[in-house]
């Protein structure tokens, strides 16, 4: 789709000649207050109800942004941040069809009609753009690479921003944990190979940003998860045994959320079809 490999490589070479941190900085003067803004913007935003992290990524100079895994109850918050920073939201990307909350994608598209929804080709959900491994999603001079990482659901994807050495792992890899495999198309063996082959193959210093954390943590690294993740540092057989015996309660609102998320949060269409 948005084939930007070449452009992204060019930009990496270009920006490596920038400041100490590998990027260019811009200083904006607002109300006599000088705001130093690095070119790259990353905001980790939390929803207290579902314990979900939403990520806003942007090129502050180009003013182009993407949002990963927005939550419907937090759409006004996300919209305000975009407005405050003067960012143009190009894409709302979901790492998978969520079971525990309704995606904010549909509501954000109402507020910003030019914004396009993105989801995996294998998700079974409706969206403007379908992605698969190797696709790149470009915003300004940055991009994220799509890696298919099934196992929690068939359509799970991880977004890797090589420019900043960060990975957004959705519900596939959590900090010290991983997504459950007991519903939707969950499968422990598939999840184990997705994480080992598609995520743990990244350099150890890459940061890991998950879609949830239930313990108050915000970020990890590939090296840390490879070494200390109590589930993923086990053998495949031990992992399968563990995952098949988690005995977690089903997400409380799964039956309401799934049909809405299969339409990327477009609720009007659902009502019309009822
Ligand atoms: N209590 C929540 C659901 C919590 C849950 O099941 N989380 C999922 C990701 S959202 S489907 C998960 O994979 N957890 C892994 C784990 O080990 O906890 C609710 O009722 O919504």
TrEMBL record:
GO terms for cellular component: mitochondrion. It is found in: Mitochondrion. It is an enzyme of class 1 (oxidoreductase). Its main location: mitochondrion. GO terms for molecular function: metal ion binding; sulfur dioxygenase activity. It catalyses: S-sulfanylglutathione + O2 + H2O = sulfite + glutathione + 2 H(+). The keyword Ribonucleoprotein does not apply. Keywords: Acetylation, Dioxygenase, Iron, Metal-binding, Mitochondrion, Oxidoreductase, Transit peptide. The keyword Lipoprotein does not apply. Pfam families: Lactamase_B. InterPro entries: Metallo-B-lactamas (IPR001279), Mito_Persulfide_Diox (IPR051682), POD-like_MBL-fold (IPR044528), RibonucZ/Hydroxyglut_hydro (IPR036866). Transmembrane segments: none annotated. Residues 51-212 form the Metallo-beta-lactamase domain. Its cofactor is Fe(2+). GO terms for biological process: glutathione metabolic process; hydrogen sulfide metabolic process; RNA 3'-end processing. Signal peptide: none annotated. Its EC number is 1.13.11.18. Belongs to the metallo-beta-lactamase superfamily. Glyoxalase II family. Homodimer. Monomer. Interacts with TST. May interact with RELA. This is Persulfide dioxygenase ETHE1, mitochondrial.
């Amino acid at each position: 789709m948005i084939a930007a490999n070449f452009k992204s490589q060019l930009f990496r070479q270009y920006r490596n000649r920038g400041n100490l941190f590998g990027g260019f900085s811009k200083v904006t003067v607002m109300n006599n207050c000088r705001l130093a803004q690095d070119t790259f913007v990353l905001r980790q935003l939390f929803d207290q109800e579902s314990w979900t992290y939403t990520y806003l990524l942007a090129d502050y100079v180009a003013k182009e942004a993407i949002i990963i895994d927005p939550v419907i109850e937090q759409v006004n918050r996300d919209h305000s941040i975009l407005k405050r920073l003067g960012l143009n939201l190009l894409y709302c990307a979901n790492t998978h069809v969520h079971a525990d909350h309704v995606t904010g994608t549909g509501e954000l598209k109402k507020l910003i009609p030019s914004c396009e929804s993105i989801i995996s080709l294998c998700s079974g959900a409706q969206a403007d753009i379908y992605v698969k491994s190797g696709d790149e999603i470009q915003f300004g001079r940055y991009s994220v690479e799509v890696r298919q990482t099934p196992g929690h659901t068939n359509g799970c994807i991880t977004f890797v921003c090589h420019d900043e050495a960060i990975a957004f792992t959705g519900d596939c890899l959590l900090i010290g944990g991983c997504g459950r495999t007991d519903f939707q198309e969950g499968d422990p063996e598939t999840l184990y190979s997705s994480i080992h082959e598609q995520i743990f193959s990244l350099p150890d210093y890459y940061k890991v940003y998950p879609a949830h954390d239930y313990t108050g943590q915000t970020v990890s690294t590939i090296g840390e998860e490879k070494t200390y993740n109590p589930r993923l540092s086990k053998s495949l057989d031990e992992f399968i045994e563990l995952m098949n015996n988690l005995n977690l309660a089903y997400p409380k609102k799964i039956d309401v959320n799934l049909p809405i998320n299969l339409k990327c949060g477009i609720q009007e269409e659902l009502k019309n079809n009822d």
